[in-house]
Protein backbone atom coordinates (compact mmCIF):
# COMPACT_ATOMS: atom_id res chain seq x y z
CA UNK A 1 0.00 0.00 0.00
CA UNK A 2 0.97 3.65 -0.12
CA UNK A 3 1.27 6.33 2.52
CA UNK A 4 1.34 10.10 2.49
CA UNK A 5 3.22 12.29 4.94
CA UNK A 6 2.00 15.87 5.29
CA UNK A 7 5.25 17.86 5.39
CA UNK A 8 4.31 21.09 3.60
CA UNK A 9 3.35 23.21 6.60
CA UNK A 10 5.01 26.50 7.50
CA UNK A 11 5.86 25.44 11.04
CA UNK A 12 4.96 28.88 12.36
CA UNK A 13 4.77 27.70 15.97
CA UNK A 14 8.30 26.27 15.71
CA UNK A 15 9.96 29.58 14.91
CA UNK A 16 12.83 30.50 14.96
CA UNK A 17 13.85 26.96 13.92
CA UNK A 18 11.61 27.15 10.87
CA UNK A 19 13.04 30.49 9.78
CA UNK A 20 15.85 28.52 8.16
CA UNK A 21 14.52 25.00 7.63
CA UNK A 22 11.20 23.25 7.05
CA UNK A 23 9.29 21.76 9.96
CA UNK A 24 9.90 18.30 8.54
CA UNK A 25 13.65 18.69 9.07
CA UNK A 26 13.50 19.82 12.70
CA UNK A 27 15.87 17.46 14.56
CA UNK A 28 14.72 15.36 17.50
CA UNK A 29 16.84 12.79 19.32
CA UNK A 30 19.29 12.46 16.43
CA UNK A 31 16.71 12.24 13.65
CA UNK A 32 14.51 14.69 11.77
CA UNK A 33 10.75 14.61 12.17
CA UNK A 34 10.55 13.33 8.59
CA UNK A 35 12.98 10.50 9.27
CA UNK A 36 10.96 9.43 12.31
CA UNK A 37 7.84 9.13 10.14
CA UNK A 38 9.53 7.36 7.24
CA UNK A 39 11.16 4.81 9.50
CA UNK A 40 7.90 4.15 11.33
CA UNK A 41 6.15 3.46 8.01
CA UNK A 42 9.03 1.34 6.76
CA UNK A 43 8.96 -0.76 9.94
CA UNK A 44 5.29 -1.48 9.22
CA UNK A 45 6.15 -2.66 5.71
CA UNK A 46 5.07 0.50 3.88
CA UNK A 47 7.77 1.72 1.53
CA UNK A 48 5.78 3.55 -1.17
CA UNK A 49 5.47 7.04 0.28
CA UNK A 50 4.39 10.45 -0.97
CA UNK A 51 5.67 13.56 0.82
CA UNK A 52 4.15 16.96 0.09
CA UNK A 53 6.37 20.05 0.20
CA UNK A 54 5.98 23.83 0.25
CA UNK A 55 8.08 25.68 2.86
CA UNK A 56 11.79 25.24 2.02
CA UNK A 57 10.74 22.52 -0.42
CA UNK A 58 14.20 22.21 -1.98
CA UNK A 59 15.72 21.39 1.40
CA UNK A 60 13.34 18.45 1.87
CA UNK A 61 13.96 17.20 -1.67
CA UNK A 62 17.74 17.45 -1.22
CA UNK A 63 17.54 15.77 2.18
CA UNK A 64 15.65 12.80 0.76
CA UNK A 65 18.08 12.52 -2.15
CA UNK A 66 21.12 12.69 0.13
CA UNK A 67 19.70 9.87 2.24
CA UNK A 68 18.69 7.70 -0.72
CA UNK A 69 15.05 8.06 0.33
CA UNK A 70 15.88 5.95 3.37
CA UNK A 71 15.57 2.84 1.22
CA UNK A 72 11.98 3.65 0.23
CA UNK A 73 10.21 4.63 -2.97
CA UNK A 74 9.43 8.26 -2.13
CA UNK A 75 7.70 10.69 -4.46
CA UNK A 76 7.22 14.39 -3.84
CA UNK A 77 3.95 16.26 -4.27
CA UNK A 78 5.00 19.84 -4.99
CA UNK A 79 2.86 22.57 -3.41
CA UNK A 80 5.37 25.39 -3.81
CA UNK A 81 2.85 27.39 -5.86
CA UNK A 82 0.12 27.13 -3.21
CA UNK A 83 -0.12 25.55 0.23
CA UNK A 84 -3.31 23.51 -0.02
CA UNK A 85 -3.98 22.37 3.57
CA UNK A 86 -4.40 18.69 4.37
CA UNK A 87 -7.45 17.87 2.24
CA UNK A 88 -6.28 19.88 -0.74
CA UNK A 89 -2.81 18.43 -0.37
CA UNK A 90 -4.15 14.89 -0.44
CA UNK A 91 -6.24 15.73 -3.51
CA UNK A 92 -3.22 17.11 -5.36
CA UNK A 93 -1.23 13.97 -4.56
CA UNK A 94 -3.93 11.65 -5.96
CA UNK A 95 -2.03 10.78 -9.18
CA UNK A 96 0.96 9.67 -7.10
CA UNK A 97 -1.16 7.70 -4.66
CA UNK A 98 -3.41 5.82 -7.08
CA UNK A 99 -1.26 5.46 -10.17
CA UNK A 100 0.04 1.90 -9.94
CA UNK A 101 -0.73 -1.62 -8.79
CA UNK A 102 0.21 -1.91 -5.15
CA UNK A 103 0.00 -5.60 -4.33
CA UNK A 104 3.49 -6.25 -5.64
CA UNK A 105 4.87 -3.47 -3.46
CA UNK A 106 3.62 -4.92 -0.18
CA UNK A 107 6.18 -6.32 2.20
CA UNK A 108 5.49 -9.70 3.79
CA UNK A 109 4.46 -7.92 7.00
CA UNK A 110 1.76 -5.88 5.32
CA UNK A 111 0.55 -8.40 2.77
CA UNK A 112 0.05 -11.06 5.44
CA UNK A 113 -1.88 -8.91 7.88
CA UNK A 114 -4.71 -11.07 9.11
CA UNK A 115 -8.02 -9.29 8.83
CA UNK A 116 -7.07 -7.04 5.90
CA UNK A 117 -9.51 -8.16 3.17
CA UNK A 118 -7.99 -9.32 -0.11
CA UNK A 119 -9.83 -6.61 -2.05
CA UNK A 120 -8.09 -3.96 0.09
CA UNK A 121 -4.84 -4.75 -1.72
CA UNK A 122 -5.69 -4.79 -5.40
CA UNK A 123 -4.93 -2.42 -8.24
CA UNK A 124 -4.51 1.31 -7.83
CA UNK A 125 -7.57 2.99 -6.42
CA UNK A 126 -8.78 -0.03 -4.39
CA UNK A 127 -5.82 -0.04 -2.03
CA UNK A 128 -6.15 1.95 1.21
CA UNK A 129 -3.93 4.96 1.79
CA UNK A 130 -2.30 5.70 5.13
CA UNK A 131 -2.04 9.44 5.79
CA UNK A 132 -0.05 11.01 8.63
CA UNK A 133 1.28 14.35 9.87
CA UNK A 134 5.03 14.82 9.96
CA UNK A 135 4.95 16.55 13.35
CA UNK A 136 3.03 13.98 15.40
CA UNK A 137 5.07 11.28 17.10
CA UNK A 138 3.40 8.21 18.55
CA UNK A 139 3.75 4.55 19.39
CA UNK A 140 0.81 3.53 17.20
CA UNK A 141 0.61 -0.07 16.03
CA UNK A 142 0.19 0.51 12.29
CA UNK A 143 -0.50 -3.17 11.44
CA UNK A 144 -3.35 -3.16 14.00
CA UNK A 145 -4.79 -0.05 12.35
CA UNK A 146 -4.66 -1.70 8.93
CA UNK A 147 -6.28 -4.86 10.23
CA UNK A 148 -9.19 -2.78 11.52
CA UNK A 149 -9.73 -1.11 8.14
CA UNK A 150 -12.97 -2.07 6.37
CA UNK A 151 -12.85 -1.51 2.57
CA UNK A 152 -16.64 -1.21 2.52
CA UNK A 153 -16.33 2.03 4.50
CA UNK A 154 -14.50 5.29 3.86
CA UNK A 155 -11.83 4.85 6.48
CA UNK A 156 -10.55 4.99 10.02
CA UNK A 157 -9.39 8.11 11.85
CA UNK A 158 -6.96 7.67 14.73
CA UNK A 159 -8.37 9.53 17.73
CA UNK A 160 -8.01 9.60 21.46
CA UNK A 161 -9.68 11.14 24.50
CA UNK A 162 -7.60 14.18 25.44
CA UNK A 163 -8.15 17.78 26.43
CA UNK A 164 -8.40 20.20 23.52
CA UNK A 165 -10.94 22.65 22.11
CA UNK A 166 -11.80 21.02 18.79
CA UNK A 167 -13.14 17.49 18.57
CA UNK A 168 -14.54 15.02 16.11
CA UNK A 169 -17.86 13.64 17.36
CA UNK A 170 -18.68 9.93 17.08
CA UNK A 171 -21.87 8.00 17.76
CA UNK A 172 -22.19 4.80 19.78
CA UNK A 173 -21.04 2.70 16.82
CA UNK A 174 -17.85 4.80 16.55
CA UNK A 175 -19.15 6.40 13.32
CA UNK A 176 -18.23 10.02 12.71
CA UNK A 177 -21.27 12.27 13.01
CA UNK A 178 -19.79 15.75 13.33
CA UNK A 179 -17.24 18.20 14.67
CA UNK A 180 -17.38 20.66 17.51
CA UNK A 181 -15.41 23.52 19.02
CA UNK A 182 -16.27 23.44 22.70
CA UNK A 183 -14.78 26.89 23.26
CA UNK A 184 -17.10 28.60 20.80
CA UNK A 185 -20.00 26.15 20.81
CA UNK A 186 -19.75 25.66 17.04
CA UNK A 187 -21.10 22.32 15.78
CA UNK A 188 -20.82 21.05 12.21
CA UNK A 189 -21.91 17.94 10.35
CA UNK A 190 -24.97 15.69 10.71
CA UNK A 191 -25.12 16.17 14.47
CA UNK A 192 -25.80 19.89 13.96
CA UNK A 193 -29.24 18.94 12.59
CA UNK A 194 -31.80 19.15 15.40
CA UNK A 195 -33.48 16.04 13.94
CA UNK A 196 -30.31 13.93 14.23
CA UNK A 197 -31.45 10.70 15.94
CA UNK A 198 -28.31 9.86 17.96
CA UNK A 199 -27.85 11.43 21.38
CA UNK A 200 -25.20 9.11 22.84
CA UNK A 201 -22.11 10.71 21.30
CA UNK A 202 -18.47 11.01 22.26
CA UNK A 203 -15.95 13.76 21.59
CA UNK A 204 -12.52 12.49 20.54
CA UNK A 205 -9.41 14.38 19.44
CA UNK A 206 -7.60 13.76 16.17
CA UNK A 207 -4.16 12.21 16.42
CA UNK A 208 -2.69 12.94 13.00
CA UNK A 209 -3.15 9.58 11.26
CA UNK A 210 -5.86 7.95 9.19
CA UNK A 211 -6.28 5.08 6.76
CA UNK A 212 -8.58 6.03 3.90
CA UNK A 213 -10.42 4.32 1.10
CA UNK A 214 -9.31 5.96 -2.17
CA UNK A 215 -12.99 6.42 -3.01
CA UNK A 216 -12.58 9.52 -0.87
CA UNK A 217 -11.08 11.31 -3.88
CA UNK A 218 -14.45 11.13 -5.62
CA UNK A 219 -15.99 13.10 -2.73
CA UNK A 220 -13.64 16.07 -3.05
CA UNK A 221 -14.88 17.90 -6.15
CA UNK A 222 -18.14 18.97 -4.54
CA UNK A 223 -16.25 20.42 -1.59
CA UNK A 224 -13.83 22.23 -3.91
CA UNK A 225 -16.82 23.79 -5.68
CA UNK A 226 -18.22 24.95 -2.34
CA UNK A 227 -14.92 26.20 -0.89
CA UNK A 228 -11.71 26.19 -2.96
CA UNK A 229 -8.76 23.94 -3.70
CA UNK A 230 -7.62 24.66 -0.14
CA UNK A 231 -9.51 22.61 2.43
CA UNK A 232 -8.68 20.46 5.41
CA UNK A 233 -9.34 16.78 5.92
CA UNK A 234 -11.67 17.77 8.76
CA UNK A 235 -13.69 19.89 6.29
CA UNK A 236 -13.92 16.85 4.04
CA UNK A 237 -14.87 14.43 6.80
CA UNK A 238 -17.65 16.69 8.06
CA UNK A 239 -18.92 17.24 4.52
CA UNK A 240 -19.27 13.52 3.76
CA UNK A 241 -20.21 12.22 7.22
CA UNK A 242 -23.92 11.98 6.49
CA UNK A 243 -23.48 9.67 3.50
CA UNK A 244 -20.15 7.95 4.10
CA UNK A 245 -18.89 5.91 7.05
CA UNK A 246 -15.72 7.06 8.79
CA UNK A 247 -15.02 5.40 12.11
CA UNK A 248 -12.85 6.10 15.11
CA UNK A 249 -9.78 4.00 15.79
CA UNK A 250 -8.64 4.31 19.40
CA UNK A 251 -5.27 2.55 19.79
CA UNK A 252 -4.50 0.50 22.86
CA UNK A 253 -1.83 1.83 25.22
CA UNK A 254 -1.49 4.83 22.94
CA UNK A 255 1.03 7.58 23.48
CA UNK A 256 1.40 10.53 21.14
CA UNK A 257 2.91 13.98 21.04
CA UNK A 258 2.21 16.86 18.70
CA UNK A 259 5.54 18.63 18.16
CA UNK A 260 3.82 21.92 17.59
CA UNK A 261 5.61 24.51 19.71
CA UNK A 262 9.20 25.56 20.18
CA UNK A 263 8.69 25.30 23.94
CA UNK A 264 7.98 21.56 23.54
CA UNK A 265 11.23 20.62 21.82
CA UNK A 266 12.97 19.32 24.95
CA UNK A 267 9.92 17.29 25.92
CA UNK A 268 9.61 16.02 22.35
CA UNK A 269 13.27 14.93 22.38
CA UNK A 270 12.63 12.79 25.44
CA UNK A 271 9.39 11.43 23.99
CA UNK A 272 11.05 10.50 20.68
CA UNK A 273 13.89 8.75 22.47
CA UNK A 274 11.35 6.66 24.39
CA UNK A 275 9.66 5.26 21.28
Description:
- With 275 residues, the protein is α/β, with parallel strands linked by helices.
- It has one domain (2-274): Spore Coat Polysaccharide Biosynthesis Protein SpsA, Chain A, CATH 3.90.550.
- Helix content is 25%, strand content 24%.
- It is built from nine helices and 14 strands.
- It has helices at 33-43, 57-66, 85-92, 94-97, 108-111, 142-148, 220-226, 233-240, 265-274; strands spanning 2-6, 27-28, 31-32, 48-53, 73-78, 129-133, 136-138, 155-160, 166-170, 176-181, 186-188, 202-212, 246-249, 256-258.
- The strands form three sheets. Strands 1, 4, 5, 6, 8, 9, 10, 11, 12 and 13 form a ten-stranded mixed beta sheet that branches.
- The longest helix has 11 residues, at 33-43.
- The chain starts with a strand and ends with a helix.
